[in-house]
C-alpha cells in the first residue's frame, strides 16, 4: 500500500534531545505533573523527545495508568483463594480476563466506561464505547457474542436528559446492532447527580476454544509488527494541540477532532478478519488500539514480550497527512488493531487482509534489545524501556478520609423523617403506591430502550430484557451457556461505599443465580468523582475494599474492569457508582429460569426475610429522601439463596424466579405478573408477622438476599425440604391465577394487569416520545 | 406440571437426507448468515456458504441473502452489496428458466430491491428508530417457493429488527403487486415502520424470489426466538421447509 | 483540488420520514417559516487533476447508478466546485 | 414556492464512514477518477411567501442548531433557490 509523501516536520530526535537539554517542553499542557516530568527525566537520563513526551503523557494519564487507584485495586488480585483461581485462565492485567467453562470452552468479558465522550456527543460517545470494549474482547482471541449497557442519566424531566438519552441509546444500538451482537441487558437509572456527567458503561462478552486464547505480547526476535484496520487520524488528540510545536508546516489544520466517530462496519469486518487470523494461527500476539493508541499498543506489546520492538512511524497509514509523529502516537482513531506475525505467516496474513479488504501496514519488528525504538524516516525519535511507559508509571497514595458529613448523612433515616410523614396504610393508598412505584423513572419498563437493540442476532439469546440476567448459549450441541448481569446502586454506595459496593456484587450475583446460572467471575467499572478530593478517594478506597472482600466471600474472582474518575460537575461528584458485572455458567441454557409466572395454580414462595430497610430505597427516592444506611449485607445468605435457586432450576423445582432488589417485593410481584401477563393472588399477613414488619414495609423495603419463585404443585414438598435443609427462610405467599387478570394482594386494592402495564410502560414514551 | 421451560435442541443434524444444498451469502457487514445457515440445517438441508466476491455461483438449489448491514448500509441499505460479483450471478439464475429460488431477508430484501429483482424500495422507518420486536405477519400468498408450507391467510410470529424497513413503491406498482398476488406477507395488528399497505414481504412474478423485512431465521428453535406469553414461535421454519420440499420434489 | 458535488433528493412523491420529523420539530424550536422540509444527500467527490468532460460524465454515471436509487431518489445536481 | 437549500458536511477532520464505504466501492464499479468521497446532507426548506433577510437568518439558525450537529458537522451552504 502506498502512502502519500510524508509531511516534513521539525523532528526532535533522541540525538537532538541528548544535546539540547535546555529545550522547554509542554509537559504541563499535556497533563503531566512536575514530579512526573522529573521522573521521566530520571528514567531516560535526558530530556524526552517530543514523541517520547507524547507517549509518557498519555500512558501516565489517570485513564491509562490507574495511578490513583492502583494501590487499592491490588486487593482484587490479592484476595483470591486457590478455589477462585481454579477456572481463571487469564487474570487481571490482560485486555480482559478469561474463565474456563469446561468442554474446552472459555469465556471472556469486560466492562468499561465511556462517560465524558457520551456527554459531549451522546451518539458517537456511546457508539465508540461499544466499539472499544468489543475490541478488547477480540484481542483475547474470542468471538464477541453479546453486549450490555449500564446507563445513568440525569433527572428524567431535565431538558438535557432527552438529548443524552436519544443519542446514547441510538449510538449503542447503532454500533452494537451493526456488529451483529445481541444486547442482552443493562441498566437505566435517572438521578440528578448524573446531569452533567452521565454514565455510559459498556460490557462485551466473547467465547473461544482454549487453544484460541491470545495475549498482548510481542515475542520472538524478527517477528513483524503490523497495524491494521482503519487509518490513523487526529481523533482524541484535540487537547494535545500543544504538540503543534513539533511542526513548522503552516498548512496544518488548527483543529483536531474533539470527538471520535465510530465506523461499526469497519469493526464488524475487523472482527471477522481477526477470527480468521486466529483460526489459522497467523498472529503471535495481538492488541487492540484504544486509549493512547499506538503509544499503548507498542509499549504494552513490547513490555509484555521477551525482547524489544523497533517501529518506523512513517509507515502508519494516515487519514490526515498533517499529523506530527507525537500526534500519530497519541491518536485514538477507532477500529485499529496491532499484531505480531512471524515472517513465515506474512503472506497468509496479507491474504486474509485482502480477502476482507482491510488496510494494513508493516511497521517494524520484534527485537532482542529490550528497548522500544521508534523511528521517523529512519531517525530515532523514541528510545525507551517499554516497561517504563506501560507499567512503571506513577502510583499515588492519594490522601483519603471519611467525609465529615458522612455521620450526619447516615443518621438521617427515612423512617420517621418528614418525607415519611404520609406512609401509605390503607388498601387504596397501598395500591396507588405500587402503581406509583412501577411507573417511576427507575422502576418503569425499559423497552423504549431495549426495542432499539437487536436481541436476536446470533440465534443464541436464551434470555434478555426484562429477565434478571442475559443468557447466551455458547455450545449449540450441549446447550452450555453463560448468564450475565450488571448492577450498581449509587444511593446505597453514597450512604456507605463499603457496603454499597458489596450490595452491587450481591445483586448481580443474585440476578445470575436467579436465572439458574452458577456465578463464576466478576468484572467491574468503578465510576467515581475526583481522586484528588479526599472524600471521593475514601469512597473509592472503601468501595474497592468492600467489593474485594465480598468477591472472596462469594468465591467469585474479579477478572478485569475499568476505573473512571473525575466524574463530577465542578466540585460536585456523582454518587459513587461501582458497576459490577457477574458472569455465571449454565450447563444447559434450556434450564434457564425466566422471571414471569405462567402456570395457573403454581405456588408463589418468598425466599428470605424482610426488615425495615427503606433508607436509600426507591420509595425513599420517590419521596425525595436520601439518608441513613443501606440494607444490611449478608453474603452467606446470598450464597445460600443462590444455591437454592440454582439447584431448584437444575432439578426442575421452579418455573419462574425473580430476585428482589430496587423496589422490593412490590416491584418483583408486579414484574413477575407483567412478564407474561399472568396474575396471582398473594397474601402477606403471615410473613409480615413472622418478620415483624407492616404490610407497607414488607412491600417496599429493600432487604437483600430475597427472591420470589413459582413452584409447581408437585414440587412443593421437595422445594420446601430443600429450603428447610439449608435453613433458609421461605414462605408460601400466594398462587398464580391467570383468571384474575390482576395482582391481588390481601390488604391492597386489586391491581388489574392492564392498568399496571399502562403505568409501567407509559413512562419512558411520555418523556422521550 | 413439572416440565422445564421448552427449549429445543440445536444439535447439528447429521448429513441431511434431502441432499438439498441451500446457499447463504456473506457480504462484508452481513450479520445473520450463521443464523440463516442454522435455519437451513434445522429444516433438513445442507447450508453452503457463498462469498460475495465469488464469480461463480456454486452448485446450489436455492439461495438465501441474509440480513445485516452490508457495507454499513451507509449509502443506502443494500446499495453497495448489490454490485457484488456474486449478486450478478444470483440475479441471472433467478431470472433464468431454472428459476433459482432466492430469499432476501431484511438487508437481503433491500439488496434484492436495489438489484431490481424485486420492485420498490425501503426507506427509514417512519419513527426513525431501529426497532426490534416480535411481529405477527399474515401469509397472503402460500404459493411461492418459500411459503408453500404455510396456509393462505395463516398468521405467523417472527422477529423484526431494522432501521430502514419502510417499504415504498409508487401506487401503480403497489396495485400491480396486489393484483398479481405478489404481496406475500403483511403486518398484522401493528405496522412497525410505516410500510405502504402494511407490506412486509413481496415476490417476483414467478414466485421464486421472495423478500421480506422480518426475520424467519430467528424463529426456528424453541427457546431462542420470539416468545409470547411464555410460548416460543418456530413459525419461521416454514420458509426453509417450503423451499426444501420444492427442491426435493423437483429432483 | 477540484471537487464534484452530487446532490440527491428523495422523489417529490415519496414520503421523506426524516424531512417530516424535522418539519415537526421546527415549530417547537420557534421556527415557523418553513412549511416543508426534505432531506437528501450531498456527496463531494474529489478528483486528482483536472475535471474533464469525461470525468464529469463518469460522476454523472456514478450518481445515477450508485449514489442514488432511481426508484426513490432523483439526482438534482452534478457540479464542479473549485476548492 | 421559493426554497432554501441547506448543505451540511461532516467536518473535514472527522472520519466519514459513509464516504469511506463509497470510495471503496467506486473502483469496483469501474469508477477510478475519484480519490475521496464525503457524504453530507442536503435539506430543502420550503417557504410560504417571500424569503426575506429575516427568514434566511432563521434558516441559518435552524441549520446551525437543528439541521447540523456542530460537534461533527459544518453547515457549508445556505442559499435561496427559486423553484
Ligand atoms: N440500558 C439497558 N439496556 C439493556 N437492557 C436494560 C437496560 N436497562 C435495563 N435493562 C434490562 O431491564 C431489565 C430490568 O432492569 P433492572 O430493574 O435494572 O434489573 P435488576 O433489578 O434485575 O437488576 C433487565 O433485564 C435489564 O437487563
Ligand atoms: Mg433482578
Question: What does this 3D model show about the protein?
Answer:
- The complex is a heterotetramer, with 1 copy of chain A (769 residues), 1 copy of chain B (251 residues) and 2 copies of chain C (83 residues).
- By secondary structure, chain A is α+β, with helices and mostly antiparallel strands.
- Chain A has a domain at 594-769: PurM-like C-terminal domain (Phosphoribosyl-aminoimidazole Synthetase, Chain A, domain 2, Alpha-Beta Complex).
- Chain A has a 7-stranded mixed sheet with strand order 8-10-7-11-9-12-13.
- Chain A is globular.
- The relative contact order of chain A is 0.12.
- Chain B is α/β, with parallel strands linked by helices and 251 residues long.
- Chain B has a single domain (21-250), classed as Class I glutamine amidotransferase (GATase) domain (Rossmann fold, 3-Layer(aba) Sandwich), CATH 3.40.50.
- Chain B is built from 5 helices and 13 strands.
- In chain B, the strands form 3 sheets. Chain B has a 9-stranded mixed sheet with strand order 2-1-3-4-11-10-9-6-7, sandwiched between helices. Chain B has a two-stranded antiparallel ribbon with strand order 5-8. In chain B, strands 12-13 form a two-stranded antiparallel ribbon.
- In chain B, helix 1 crosses helix 5.
- Chain B is globular, with a radius of gyration of 17 Å.
- The termini of chain B are far apart.
- The model of chain B is unreliable at 1-14 (pLDDT under 50).
- Chain C is α+β, with helices and mostly antiparallel strands and 83 residues long.
- Chain C has a single domain (3-81), classed as 2-Layer Sandwich (Mth169, Chain: A), CATH 3.30.1280.10.
- Chain C is 33% helix and 37% strand.
- Chain C contains 2 helices and 3 strands.
- Chain C has a 3-stranded antiparallel sheet with strand order 2-1-3.
- The mean pLDDT of chain C is 93.
- Classes of the chains: A alpha+beta (769), B alpha/beta (251), C alpha+beta (83).
- Chains in contact: A-B, A-D, B-C, B-D, C-D.
- Chains A and D meet through helix 10 of A and helix 1 of D.
- Strand 2 (34-47) of chain C pairs antiparallel with strand 2 (34-47) of chain D, so a sheet runs across the interface.
- Adenosine-5'-diphosphate (ADP) binds at residues 149, 151, 183, 185-188, 446, 449-450, 465-468, 487, 511, 661-662 of chain A.
Amino acid at each position: 500500500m502506498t502512502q502519500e509523501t510524508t509531511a516534513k516536520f521539525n523532528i526532535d530526535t533522541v540525538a537532538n534531545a541528548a544535546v539540547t537539554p535546555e529545550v522547554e517542553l509542554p509537559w504541563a499542557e499535556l497533563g503531566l505533573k512536575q514530579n512526573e516530568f522529573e521522573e521521566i527525566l530520571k528514567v531516560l537520563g535526558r530530556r524526552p523527545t517530543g514523541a517520547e513526551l507524547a507517549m509518557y503523557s498519555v500512558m501516565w494519564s489517570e485513564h491509562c495508568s490507574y495511578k490513583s487507584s492502583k494501590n487499592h485495586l491490588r486487593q482484587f488480585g490479592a484476595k483470591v483463594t486457590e478455589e477462585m483461581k481454579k477456572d481463571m485462565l487469564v487474570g487481571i492485567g490482560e485486555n480482559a480476563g478469561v474463565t474456563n467453562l469446561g468442554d474446552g470452552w472459555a469465556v471472556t468479558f469486560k466492562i468499561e466506561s465511556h462517560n465524558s465522550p457520551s456527554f459531549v456527543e451522546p451518539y458517537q460517545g456511546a457508539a465508540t464505547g461499544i466499539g472499544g470494549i468489543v475490541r478488547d474482547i477480540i484481542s483475547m482471541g474470542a468471538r464477541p457474542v453479546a453486549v450490555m449497557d449500564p446507563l445513568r442519566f440525569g433527572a428524567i424531566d431535565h431538558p438535557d436528559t432527552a438529548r443524552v438519552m436519544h443519542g446514547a441509546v441510538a449510538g449503542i444500538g447503532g454500533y452494537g446492532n451493526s456488529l451483529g451482537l445481541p444486547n442482552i441487558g443493562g441498566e437505566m437509572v435517572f438521578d440528578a447527580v448524573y446531569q452533567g456527567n452521565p454514565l455510559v458503561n459498556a460490557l462485551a462478552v466473547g467465547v473461544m476454544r482454549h487453544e484460541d486464547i491470545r495475549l498482548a505480547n510481542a515475542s520472538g526476535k524478527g517477528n513483524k509488527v503490523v497495524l491494521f484496520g482503519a487509518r490513523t487520524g487526529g481523533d482524541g488528540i484535540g487537547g494535545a494541540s500543544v504538540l503543534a510545536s513539533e511542526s513548522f508546516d503552516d498548512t496544518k489544520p488548527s483543529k483536531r477532532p474533539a470527538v471520535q466517530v465510530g465506523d461499526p462496519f469497519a469493526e464488524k469486518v475487523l472482527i471477522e478478519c481477526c477470527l480468521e487470523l486466529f483460526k489459522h494461527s497467523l498472529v503471535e500476539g495481538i492488541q487492540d488500539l484504544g486509549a493512547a493508541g499506538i503509544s499503548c499498543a507498542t509499549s504494552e506489546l513490547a513490555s509484555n514480550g521477551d525482547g524489544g520492538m523497533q517501529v518506523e512511524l512513517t509507515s502508519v497509514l494516515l487519514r490526515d497527512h498533517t499529523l506530527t509523529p507525537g500526534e500519530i502516537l497519541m491518536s485514538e482513531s477507532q477500529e485499529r488493531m496491532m499484531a505480531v506475525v512471524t515472517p513465515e505467516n506474512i503472506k497468509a496474513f496479507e491474504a486474509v487482509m485482502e480477502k476482507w479488504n482491510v488496510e494494513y501496514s508493516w511497521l517494524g519488528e520484534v527485537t532482542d534489545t529490550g528497548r522500544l525504538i521508534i523511528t521517523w524516516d529512519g531517525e530515532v525519535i523514541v528510545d525507551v524501556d517499554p516497561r517504563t511507559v506501560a507499567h512503571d508509571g506513577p502510583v499515588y497514595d492519594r490522601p483519603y478520609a471519611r467525609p465529615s458529613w458522612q455521620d450526619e448523612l447516615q443518621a438521617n433515616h427515612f423512617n420517621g423523617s418528614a418525607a415519611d410523614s404520609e406512609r401509605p396504610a390503607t388498601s387504596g393508598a397501598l395500591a396507588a403506591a405500587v402503581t406509583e412505584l412501577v411507573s417511576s423513572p427507575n422502576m418503569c419498563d425499559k423497552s423504549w430502550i431495549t426495542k432499539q437493540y437487536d436481541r436476536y442476532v446470533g440465534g443464541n439469546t436464551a434470555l434478555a430484557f426484562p429477565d434478571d440476567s442475559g443468557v447466551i448459549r455458547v455450545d449449540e450441541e450441549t446447550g452450555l451457556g453463560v448468564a450475565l448481569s450488571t448492577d450498581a446502586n449509587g444511593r446505597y454506595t453514597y450512604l456507605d461505599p463499603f457496603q454499597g459496593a458489596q450490595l452491587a456484587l450481591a445483586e448481580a450475583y443474585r440476578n445470575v443465580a436467579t436465572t439458574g446460572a452458577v456465578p463464576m467471575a466478576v468484572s467491574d467499572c468503578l465510576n467515581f468523582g475526583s481522586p484528588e478530593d479526599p472524600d471521593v478517594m475514601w469512597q473509592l478506597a472503601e468501595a474497592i475494599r468492600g467489593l474485594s472482600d465480598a468477591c472472596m466471600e462469594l468465591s467469585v474472582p474479579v477478572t478485569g474492569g475499568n476505573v473512571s474518575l473525575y466524574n463530577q460537575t465542578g466540585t460536585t461528584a456523582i454518587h459513587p457508582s461501582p458497576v459490577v458485572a457477574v458472569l455465571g455458567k449454565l450447563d444447559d441454557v434450556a434450564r434457564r429460569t425466566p422471571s414471569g409466572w405462567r402456570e395457573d395454580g403454581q405456588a408463589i414462595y418468598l425466599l428470605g426475610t424482610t426488615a425495615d430497610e427503606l433508607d436509600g430505597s426507591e420509595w425513599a427516592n420517590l419521596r425525595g429522601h436520601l439518608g441513613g444506611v443501606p440494607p444490611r449485607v449478608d453474603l452467606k445468605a446470598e450464597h445460600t439463596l443462590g444455591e437454592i435457586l440454582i439447584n431448584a432450576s437444575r432439578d426442575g423445582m421452579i418455573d419462574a424466579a425473580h430476585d428482589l432488589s430496587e423496589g422490593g417485593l412490590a416491584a418483583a410481584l408486579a414484574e413477575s405478573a407483567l412478564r407474561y401477563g399472568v396474575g396471582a393472588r398473594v397474601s402477606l399477613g403471615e410473613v409480615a408477622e413472622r418478620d415483624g414488619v407492616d404490610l407497607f414495609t414488607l412491600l417496599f423495603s429493600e432487604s437483600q438476599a430475597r427472591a420470589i419463585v413459582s413452584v409447581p404443585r408437585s414440587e412443593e414438598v421437595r422445594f420446601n425440604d430443600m429450603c428447610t435443609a439449608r435453613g433458609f427462610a421461605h414462605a408460601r405467599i400466594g398462587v398464580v391465577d391467570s383468571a384474575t387478570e390482576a395482582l391481588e394482594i390481601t390488604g391492597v386494592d386489586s391491581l388489574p394487569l392492564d392498568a399496571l402495564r399502562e403505568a409501567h410502560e407509559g413512562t419512558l414514551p411520555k418523556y422521550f416520545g | 406440571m413439572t416440565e422445564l421451560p421448552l427449549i429445543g435442541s440445536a444439535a447439528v443434524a447429521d448429513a441431511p437426507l434431502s441432499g438439498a444444498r441451500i446457499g447463504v451469502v456473506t457480504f462484508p457487514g452481513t450479520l445473520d448468515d450463521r443464523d440463516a445457515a442454522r435455519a437451513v440445517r434445522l429444516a433438513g438441508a445442507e447450508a453452503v456458504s457463498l462469498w460475495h466476491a465469488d464469480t461463480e455461483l456454486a452448485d446450489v438449489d436455492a439461495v438465501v441473502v441474509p440480513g445485516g448491514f452490508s457495507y454499513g448500509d451507509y449509502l443506502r441499505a443494500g446499495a453497495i452489496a448489490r454490485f457484488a460479483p456474486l449478486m450478478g450471478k444470483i440475479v441471472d439464475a433467478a431470472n433464468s428458466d431454472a428459476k433459482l429460488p432466492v430469499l432476501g431477508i431484511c438487508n437481503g430484501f433491500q439488496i434484492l430491491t436495489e438489484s431490481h429483482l424485486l420492485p420498490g424500495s425501503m426507506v427509514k422507518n417512519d419513527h426513525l428508530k431501529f426497532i426490534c420486536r416480535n411481529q405477527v405477519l399474515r401469509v397472503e400468498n402460500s404459493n411461492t417457493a418459500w411459503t408453500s408450507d404455510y396456509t393462505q391467510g395463516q398468521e405467523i410470529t417472527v422477529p423484526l429488527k431494522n432501521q430502514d424497513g419502510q417499504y415504498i413503491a409508487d401506487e401503480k406498482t403497489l396495485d400491480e403487486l396486489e393484483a398479481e398476488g405478489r404481496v406475500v406477507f403483511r403486518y398484522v395488528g401493528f405496522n412497525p415502520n410505516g410500510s405502504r399497505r402494511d407490506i412486509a414481504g413481496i415476490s417476483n412474478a414467478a414466485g421464486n424470489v421472495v423478500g421480506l423485512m422480518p426475520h424467519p431465521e430467528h424463529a426456528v428453535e424453541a427457546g431462542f426466538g420470539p416468545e409470547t406469553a411464555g410460548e416460543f414461535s418456530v413459525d419461521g421454519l416454514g420458509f426453509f421447509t417450503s423451499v426444501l420440499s420444492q427442491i426435493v420434489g423437483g429432483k | 483540488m477540484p471537487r464534484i458535488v452530487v446532490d440527491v433528493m428523495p422523489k417529490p412523491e415519496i414520503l421523506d420520514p426524516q424531512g417530516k420529523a424535522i418539519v415537526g420539530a421546527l415549530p417547537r424550536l420557534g421556527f415557523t417559516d418553513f412549511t416543508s422540509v426534505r432531506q437528501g444527500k450531498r456527496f463531494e467527490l474529489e478528483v486528482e487533476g483536472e475535471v474533464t468532460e469525461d470525468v464529469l460524465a463518469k460522476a454523472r454515471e456514478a450518481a445515477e447508478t450508485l449514489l442514488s436509487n432511481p426508484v426513490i431518489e432523483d439526482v438534482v445536481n452534478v457540479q464542479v466546485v473549485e476548492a
